[in-house]
Amino acid sequence: MTKFFTALFLLIGIVSMQAQTLQSPDKNLTLTFSLTPNGVPVYELSYKNKPVIKTSNLGIETKDVPSFLEGFSMKDSKTSTFDETWQPVWGEQKDIRNHYNELAVTIEQKSVQNRHIIIKFRLFNDGLGFRYEFPEQPNLTYFVIKEEKTQFALAGNHKAFWLPGDFDTQEYSTVTSRLSEVRGKMKEAITPNASQFPFSPTGLQTPLMMKSEDGLYINIHEAALIDYACLSLELDDKTMVFNAFLTPDAQGNKGYLQAPTKTPWRTIVVSDDARNILASKLILNLNEPTKYEDVSWIKPVKYIGVWWEMITGKSSWAYTDLPSVKLGEIDYTKTKRNPKHAANTENVKNHIDFASKHGFDAVLVEGWNEGWEDWFGKSKDFVFDFVTPYPDFDVKYLNEYAASKNVKLMMHHETSGSVRNYERHMDKAYQFMVDNGYNSVKSGYVGNIIPRGEYHYGQWMVNHYLHAITKAAEYKIMVNAHEAIRPTGLSRTYPNLIGNESARGTEFESFGGNNPDHTTILPFTRLMGGPMDYTPGIFQTQIKEFNPDNTSFVHTTLAKQLALYVTMYSPLQMAADLPENYNKHLDAFQFIKDVAIDWDESYILEAEPGDYITIARKAKGKNEWFVGGITDENKRTATVDFSFLPKGKTFEAIVYGDAKNADYINNPQAYEIKKIKVTSKTKLKQNLATSGGFAISVK
Length: 699
Description:
single chain; alpha+beta; 10-stranded antiparallel beta sheet; 8-stranded antiparallel beta sheet; 13 helices; 36 strands; about 30% strand
């Protein structure tokens, strides 16, 4: 018995010697790293002495070399502190503080020729980031990932705001439930999409937002996703442990790495105040500074477009009604034009006039190029060439006309998932843009990927998306990628990535509608890694007014559409409705014209995921402030605290709000506009209708 206790105390002593503790700068967060007796690396995380992540395994399982899972011993550990303030090219605030304490542990597997790896932890006041690093060494060069074995062992059966885990799409409605309910709700949550591959009855996507019983808000995601597969999570719903689940390639492998290399950061943002989740810049801070010496060509963009009329079914992308075309063989000048084809010279010219009159930067035009007749769902390789316009689209004239009106045309590159074809044409396509005055492109990846068998979120496609961004930078082109991987803060490093879709956007209001709570959740989930091209601003909410055969409707009030320009941050903002609908409500349209899209400061005034958000922002370089507030399906009264204004001054505020009888189903266009005087001491009570909102401009 004495020998047993002696051995036990020795074991405890060895484990405790290996344990490493790190605190955040404000000491609210505590990280503990250690090795189990079997040499398995584990970590724990607490916030104000409340458990956030219980003891969780770390490691990488490989196919062709011994795995990085166990048999480790401590070789070295180093701690350091970092504190800087940096300025983004564009963003929610002018200055971002990057302050963390770091622990870098080097662990070695003596049984594998003393092979070693580094696990690096960075603990901020708002959360944790950690990653695996693989130094160059004689016995480690190339290896194939079978699965990443990172765990997130939760402290309870949290309320979660989740999307079904899928290798190809994030365009699902968010489900709000307890984690224990995921399995039972999964089948209903998986709705049809152009390309989808759900992987598990308990598989979830990141960013994943959760709330614990004891009031902690916890967000799990990743940062700096480069040359690696997208992270998803698989829940063990008996133990409430999330296991990493990477997107495979066509052969089933999860990644091909060559040392020296590193994984993306795994991120856990945590607070007892939901507002701090929205204010977090942890994911941006874990990305590298910009790679570009010259960023003068990268500018925020407010635009309109020839788009919504096709989404609603009013108009068409295709020039003809032919069921099949072959590029290079068909002569479109000899075909019958579809009268519903929207991307024609006259229509685009009218949009340019409207954009110029109201101060917009650009006009997006979709359906301008040959190939739209059979672009969808055919697994067609040579589907577009990205440079040949339809006969009714005069590209040279329109770009010259736009330039004369101080407006740019925005290019559209839909790939139909044929990425191999896009890469073949990419240089020529970008050069065509430069030659014709374009400086921004909306790219799309609708449908299954070619090469066949690859997924949207695998390592191969992750590398393609970054290639498209860096190649565009060579031509000084800004990129807004739709159906691409959800962002992970790479816009800090590559700021010409000015937008992504990567979630269920406004277009789905025409495909049955988004839930009223949708945009009260997205800032806590999808927007954690970067801005979204959500395309708000729909004033005519009844889709049947565009297309009698479409009974869908926008699940918001008109005033909520205005608020989204503040609550859904993006340096790329679209006024998505048709010009004729704005002309009917020019008083409300004034807010869209006025609202800034680049900011000095942002103030999260009120926030609860799935319920409501109120945000104020100060325009970049101006003494102008804008406020947006939204709610879910429930009416509420927001409190707008104007203490963000300079003290001792009085300002005029224009309030765009729901009318007393507004309702997102029965009376969505009921709004009222009033002017009031405000100071830094003002606290305004503002009523919101069901799925309603308000917007305020202060000058």
